[in-house]
Amino acid sequence: MYAHREELPLHSVAVTKLTELAEADAPWGIPIFCVGEFVRVVTHPKLFHPPYTASEACKALDRLLESPSLRLLRPGQAFMSLFSDAIHEANAIGNLVFDAQIVAVCREFGVSCLLTEDRDFARFPRFPFQTL
Questions:
Q1: What is the reported pTM?
Q2: Which of residues 53, 73, 93 is at a domain's end?
């Protein structure tokens, strides 16, 4: 989101990092849950003035998906067990359950580090993340 909204304070840092990831040969991933969340947030009229249209949000995702090294991380066979583990690990309730889904799918794919500005991921002590 930061890379797509120029008015956000971390925009230039996020663009640089996203460009590095997208242009590198090393695989990188986006949890499928984050795709819907991106569209939800950037099109939200109470969060952005003006918000993206649905078409603009989808075009931004299409550009991102052009990176040949990008992998969309989708739940597989181990997801439910990993999801349950993440919920118990962080005592996840309410909004933190969404983050537990991200933790679970990342663990399923062996993700070594999640790049996020959401400090709630610190509630998952066995999950590595870093901020921009």
A1: 0.90
A2: 73
